[in-house]
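USER:
Before I trust my own judgement here, I would like a peer's view. Write it directly below this note and I will take it from there.

ASSISTANT:
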Amino acid sequence: MSLAPIGISTYSRLGHLKQTIESLQKNTLSKQTELYIFSDAPKKGDEEIVAKVRKYIHTVDGFKKVHIIERESNGRVFNNRDGMKRLLDKYDRMIFMEEDNVTAPGFLTFMNNALDFYKDDANVVSIAGYTPPINIPAGYAKDYISLQRFNGWGFGTWKDRYDKIEMTMEKKAYLKNIKDNIFFKKLIVNGEDIPHMIEQDIDGKINALDVKIMYQQIINDWYIICPRSSLVQNIGHDESGLHSGNSTKFEHSFLWDKKEDFRFSTDLTVDINIRKENYKIFSGRQRNQYVNILRNLGMHQYLKKIKETFFLK
């Protein structure tokens, strides 16, 4: 097994970054893994805290090798995507996270095992270390679950999969797809918030890799592989992140303590009960948003049918 490098993008949250690094140092494969830290340059007024972050990252050890990339100009999206591209061009696979992802000791083992197992399966677009706090059905025996909703809180992928992601979504094509009843149902069943986020991305209000992948997962029938119980805790929902408020909705009371012998199979079927549980996590507040989208598109006739078919009551 060829171990994937880890990339961490960081800006100014020193306390979050320390927790992220310290948890990775406790991973069973940390000493065999190369770590890349991509430090974004400060905006005006943030020079002092970014300087503290950069002083800290030069003290980080506990990995096979630590590489530090200090940007000269500020750009969150560039810092992330250039970091991903750099790792994929050199290693052909990667694990990437931001500075607010605390991991369990088995995280790197799960990620590398899965990256190796699914490396030739073009239907798997990524491996996720985070799993939403959902109830796994009694009797479900697999170490993993498959979903069609991307999550980037500690994710892994391969160069050939990443290169297929279209970074610009065409509005004309989207409007054609969204008016297709079958396509819309496949999209909405993964979360009521998705159509609204796609429209925001297309209109230039956001530039979100996860939203682009969610959309293309439905178009291309791509899947992500997650651990049955989360190996990542996102600690950024404390109003410190750019797109996160103050919420405990995505928190776990504990992370999975399994460290080895993760087992996978080629079966990518999404368990209907797991899909329902995942849907509940990402739906509710966005109900009015997608209803308005349907109305604006003249799709009133689909509302009742969609609700009845996809548990949107």
In short: The chain has one domain: 6-309.
